[in-house]
Design brief:
Elements lengths: L1 H19 L12 E9 L9 E10 L2 E7 L3 E2 L10 E7 L5 E9 L3 E9 L5 E8 L1
Parallel strand pairs: 1-8
Antiparallel strand pairs: 1-5, 2-3, 2-4, 2-6, 6-7
Length: 131
């Protein structure tokens, strides 16, 4: 019984130490930039049942660094500003970037909201009030 207890304590100690010392050597904290995406509307779309699909993106020249599509929703379900959808993405790149939203309304078309992020700018908020 004493050996089993000692063995359990030793295994727990080894696992705890190993899990606490892991670090990602590819990301340097001083180079990480935070980009906050906010999506909301200030208009009343309560009667609009059309489907809309949003995606958020971050680009560097012609290279896509991040791209993510949100679940399709009804236009009437886009939240008001007090309940905005907020997404944060951290990027390890200090060059000039563009970021924003693409959206597609079923049977209508596509459009986008694009903003720039200056080289070295550490924090950026992409604020999109859908009209």
């Amino acid at each position: 019984m004493k050996k089993l207890f000692t063995l359990c304590v030793a295994i727990f100690a080894i696992l705890s130490i190993a899990s606490c010392t892991k670090k990602d050597p590819t990301v340097k904290p001083q180079n990480v930039r935070s980009i906050l995406f906010k999506l909301y509307t200030q208009k009343d779309f309560s009667d609009n049942d059309e489907d809309i699909t949003f995606s958020i993106f971050i680009k560097k020249a012609n290279q896509t660094l991040f791209d993510s599509t949100l679940a399709t929703m009804k236009i009437k379900d886009i939240p008001k500003s007090a309940s905005a959808m907020i997404f944060e993405k951290k990027i390890n790149d200090n060059s000039l970037l563009s970021a924003g939203f693409n959206y597609s309304i079923e049977n209508v078309g596509t459009s986008s909201h694009i903003d720039t992020i200056a080289a070295g700018e550490q924090n950026k908020e992409i604020d999109f009030s859908f009209q």
